[in-house]
Specification:
17 strands, five-stranded antiparallel β-sheet, alpha+beta
């Protein structure tokens, strides 16, 4: 190996090799076989002064001193001795390891690398040490590991958003982090989590500010960057999966100072985005499975209760009819018997609903047009609409749609929500049914009545079992509708405001998605 003169001759300027080594941002020094330091670049002094508590202790004149005296702790000295032994093997080109270096301001990570100086004959006559600050890349690596671990345990989607935001901020000092997710039905992208932006205004303002970047990132499936290193950067990474578009993450930061640091940050953010997409899908799947299991458990209980109630109700009904026949001349008794029979009839309806919910018929899906089912139902229920003097306004999709349907079960859903809408609508008012094709090829309809709004405290409970504010209602109808829509791979939602009335929205996926 050709030797390099690291020291200047008397009266001469420093050699080029020395000037080059002194300019490097990492410490480089050499030792002889006994471990005495034979040369060092100027970065040693700066490093030792700044990091006296770390492995390399400060030394005013290190040339000729032992490397083992310059090392601050026994484990590191032993590690160096072990490295020198390993380098005796020509098959070991270098030995390296990482070590932490803490200061009151921050914790930094350095990489120690040791290689052997060999003569032209292949004999070792010394060693070269180098130490470089790898704190940034170490933080990035740790962030990816921590993100993976944290998201592997997160099964709640809100927890996923919190963890992702925290890990992004851990990897990159940030002024703000925004996570936006696309709605399954409308594909509209909305903010689901934000951190920072204390002076950035409302969520709507941030929505308007970042929406163009989200759309660009999702359209191309590529990272989008606004700004340059050394100034404020806005970096947006798309959240996509095998199923399609999920959303985007946007980070704003002014801590990235170089193009290399920017490339590292972008690589890390892309990996975090991929981990996030998987975690979001898993959380959604867990939520759907939990909901399905809950409905199945409720159904089993409902079927059991209905079975136990049916025989006693039949006995009460028979006894009441017999009593009514024998007590025709006593108006008081007859009145109470009629009341008993009316309540028995109501309980019988509930038992039937319980059995329908608890032991549903198997769903048989076939391609069909959900609009045609509405046409049939409105024809059958024309008299009901006329009795309330209701006017039906219909807005159809721009073109036909095909979805997988169980016609009889879907008719049951339609009838339930139509009856509820008719009962709630003021006499002589208007019912509106607006249908449309979704961006994903699915179908959606919204049935709206102008009746009194559902109270805000009631609205979250409308799909709960046995919850009803309707006189004589069983509290099973909407729960059954929700179950049927779930089995179709669709959804049912209710919105209600004093200004717009109450709307029930049904959605079905496209044929290919089911």
């Amino acid at each position: 190996m050709t030797s390099i003169d690291l020291g200047p001759r008397a009266g001469e300027a420093p050699a080029l090799a020395r000037r080059v080594l002194d300019a490097l941002p990492l410490t480089i020094y050499s030792v002889d076989l006994e471990g005495r330091i034979t040369a060092a670049n100027r970065t040693w002094s700066r490093f030792a002064e700044q990091n006296g508590a770390c492995e390399l202790a400060p030394e005013p004149d290190i040339i000729g001193s032992s490397i083992f005296d310059a090392i601050a702790d026994d484990p590191s000295r032993e590690q160096i001795r072990r490295a020198m032994e390993l380098l005796q093997d020509p098959g070991v080109p270098a030995v390296n390891w990482e070590f932490p270096c803490s200061s009151p301001e921050e914790e930094r990570i350095f990489l120690m690398n040791i290689s052997a100086l060999r003569t032209s004959a292949g004999d070792i006559d010394g060693y070269v040490f180098s130490t470089v600050d790898i704190s940034a890349s170490h933080r990035s690596r740790e962030a990816l590991i921590e993100t993976g671990i944290a998201l592997s345990h997160a099964i709640d989607v809100a927890r996923v958003y919190e963890e992702v935001s925290r890990q992004v901020r851990r990897a990159f000092p940030s002024e703000g982090v925004v996570i936006a997710v696309a709605d399954d039905e409308t594909a509209e992208i909305r903010i689901v989590h934000r951190w920072g932006f204390t002076g950035g205004g409302t969520a709507d303002a941030l929505q308007a500010r970042f929406l163009p970047q989200w759309l660009e990132a999702l359209a191309d499936g590529q990272l989008v960057r606004r700004g340059e290193p050394g100034a404020t950067l806005e970096i947006t990474v798309p959240l996509t999966s095998a199923e399609g578009v999920l959303g985007a993450i946007t980070l704003t930061t002014d801590s990235i100072r170089s193009s290399n640091a920017l490339e590292e940050a972008e690589r890390v953010l892309l990996v975090i985005a991929a981990q996030t997409a998987v975690a979001i899908e898993r959380a959604w799947l867990v939520r759907r499975v939990e909901h399905k299991r809950r409905l199945e458990a409720i159904g089993e209980v409902a079927a059991g209760v209905a079975h136990e109630l049916r025989n006693p109700l039949f006995g009460i009904s028979s006894a009441a009819q017999l009593l009514r026949f024998r007590a025709r001349e006593d108006p008081v008794v007859e009145k109470n018997v009629v009341r008993i029979m009316r309540e028995v009839e109501r309980l019988n309806r509930m038992v039937t609903s319980l059995l329908d919910f608890g032991r549903p018929a198997a769903v048989h899906l076939t391609p069909g047009d959900p609009e045609l089912l509405w046409d049939e139902l409105f024809e059958l229920e024309r008299e009901r609409l006329a009795q309330h003097r209701l006017v039906l306004r219909r807005v159809r999709p721009t073109h036909g749609v095909r979805c997988l349907l169980d016609i009889e079960q879907l008719k049951q859903v339609y009838l339930n929500i139509l009856v509820n809408a008719v009962d709630a609508a003021p006499e002589g008012s208007e019912l509106t049914l607006v249908s449309s094709i979704l961006p994903n090829g699915g179908w959606r309809c919204k049935l709206t009545n102008g009746g009194p709004a559902i109270p805000p405290e009631v609205l979250p409970h409308v799909f709960e079992f046995f919850y009803s504010t309707k006189p004589g209602g069983t509290g099973i109808g909407l729960a059954l509708c929700q179950r049927i829509m779930d089995e179709h791979g669709g959804s049912i939602t209710i919105d209600s405001t004093p200004e717009a009335g109450t709307s029930v929205t049904l959605s079905l996926p496209p044929t290919a998605a089911t």
